[in-house]
Structure formats: C-alpha cells, structure tokens
C-alpha cells in the first residue's frame, strides 16, 4: 500500500504499537455502479459527483481471526 501511496485514516487516538491484531485489506469480490449515476439521471452538483457503489467483499477467513 505504501508503494501506491494509499493512506488509511485512523480516528484519534491511533492504535498503539502493542495492539494484538493486524489489519489487512482485500479487494472487493464484486463491484457495480448503481443509483442515478448508472441510470444517467444524476443531478448536477456544485462540486464532484455522488456515485452509489455496490460492493461484495470476499468471505472472512474465521481461523485467521483466532
């Protein structure tokens, strides 16, 4: 993630260095654009777009969590 310059924000206070769990990220198993943007009925905004996404995340490996 560092090589792609991806920054994951954490709320304050940040997790300490002595935490007993690890963070990992997986790409979605499925992604689709939904809502008014996909239907081409999106209303104009002053800045940017509002896009609804449907994400299906991969199954969680339960033994990995223990």
Which whole number gives the mean pLDDT? 77
Coarse structural class: alpha+beta
**β-strand number:** 2
* Distance linking N and C termini: 24 Å
Trace the largest sheet across and list its strands.
1-2
Helix content: 10-25%
Looking at the structure, what is the overall shape? extended
Low-pLDDT residue intervals, each spanning 5 or more residues: none
Return Rg in Å: 18 Å
Largest sheet: number of strands, sense, barrel closure = 2 strands, antiparallel
Q: How many helices does DSSP assign? A: 2
Report strand %.
15-25%
H/E order of the elements? EHEH
What is the topological layout?
Elements: E1 30-34, H1 35-38, E2 52-56, H2 62-65
Antiparallel strand pairs: 1-2
Describe the model:
It is a single chain. The protein has a domain at 30-65. Helix content is 12%, strand content 15%. The chain has helices at residues 35-38, 62-65, and strands spanning 30-34, 52-56. It has a two-stranded antiparallel sheet. The model has no long low-confidence stretch (mean pLDDT 77).
């Amino acid at each position: 993630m560092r090589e792609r310059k991806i920054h994951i924000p954490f709320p304050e206070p940040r997790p300490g260095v002595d935490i007993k769990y690890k963070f990992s990220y997986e790409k979605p198993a499925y992604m689709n654009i939904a809502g008014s943007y996909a239907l081409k009925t999106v209303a104009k905004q002053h800045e940017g777009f509002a896009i609804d996404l449907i994400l299906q995340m991969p199954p969680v490996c339960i033994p990995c969590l223990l």
